[in-house]
User: Which sequence fits this backbone?
């Protein structure tokens, strides 16, 4: 069962089992995640790939949760493989289709023809399925993993507290600003390579903290949020700092308070470890047969 089917089933974060599901997701993110080394020879192409994924997602009306999962798969796969230029776009699209098969209705899964204008016309459905299989085999078919977007949906339900609204007439305005800001910070988190090494739940909690801080809500980290997320405010400062710097760099939001930007806490994020995979070279059409390592 997909973690996010807003249009087709109940939202898990609004069910009576939400706390149990959240605990499982936090356990799964630690158990599954791989070390990210930012060592892909094609890492300079990441902004273009991210833009392409977002563009296709918008055209096909794909959810933000699906986009986050696709980018997660793409980042880790690229980090462990040396891809040819004409293959890397196909790999990013394959990651999106795999994510859509998990998170979306079948009618929303992008088709290969959607990418015909940016990939080789010689790529057939058979070649594309081989790329998908290569990715699945790399992840040992375990691609239904929690992302920042999954945790955000749960934490958003606990964003407000009774003391946040001194005047009811301002509540709607504040909630609208909050929703828009959350989306912007989520986009910023996708663009930051440094945030990939943090637990998705930590990045999601940092987005909530940074948003409350930017909106001037006091306290910016409530007892309820501390209980729900399992993070103390001091645990999130370093992640908030990286998030704030990325936002300022791309000029998408109001700059975060200098207190965050100048912080240098001793806390280190619990980077999730797993056994490293050897990077291998893949190409189309011999995507399965090629075994040449990139080292």
Assistant:
């Amino acid at each position: 069962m997909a973690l996010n089917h807003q249009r087709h089933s109940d939202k898990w974060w609004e069910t009576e089992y939400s706390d149990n599901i959240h605990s499982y997701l936090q356990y799964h993110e630690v158990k599954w995640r791989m070390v990210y080394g930012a060592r892909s020879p094609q890492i300079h192409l990441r902004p273009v790939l991210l833009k392409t994924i977002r563009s296709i997602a918008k055209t096909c009306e794909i959810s933000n949760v699906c986009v986050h999962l696709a980018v997660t798969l793409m980042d880790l796969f690229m980090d462990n493989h040396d891809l040819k230029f004409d293959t890397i776009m196909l790999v990013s699209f394959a990651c999106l289709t795999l994510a859509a098969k998990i998170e979306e209705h079948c009618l929303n899964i992008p088709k290969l023809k959607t990418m015909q204008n940016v990939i080789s016309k010689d790529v057939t459905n058979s070649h594309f399925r081989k790329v998908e299989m290569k990715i699945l085999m790399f992840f040992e078919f375990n691609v239904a993993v929690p992302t920042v977007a999954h945790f955000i949906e749960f934490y958003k339900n606990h964003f407000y507290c009774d003391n946040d609204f001194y005047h009811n007439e301002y509540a709607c305005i504040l909630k609208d600003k909050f929703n828009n800001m959350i989306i912007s910070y989520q986009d910023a988190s996708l663009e930051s390579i440094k945030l990939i090494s943090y637990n998705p739940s930590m990045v999601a909690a940092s987005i909530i903290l940074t948003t409350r801080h930017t909106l001037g809500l006091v306290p910016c980290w409530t007892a309820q949020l501390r209980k729900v997320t399992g993070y103390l405010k001091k645990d999130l400062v370093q992640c908030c700092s990286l998030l704030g710097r990325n936002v300022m760099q791309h000029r998408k939001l109001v700059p975060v308070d200098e207190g965050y930007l100048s912080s240098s806490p001793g806390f280190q994020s619990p980077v999730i470890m797993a056994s490293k995979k050897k990077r291998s070279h893949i190409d189309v059409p011999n995507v399965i047969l090629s075994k040449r390592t990139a080292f």
User: Anything to note?
Assistant: The chain has a mean pLDDT of 78.
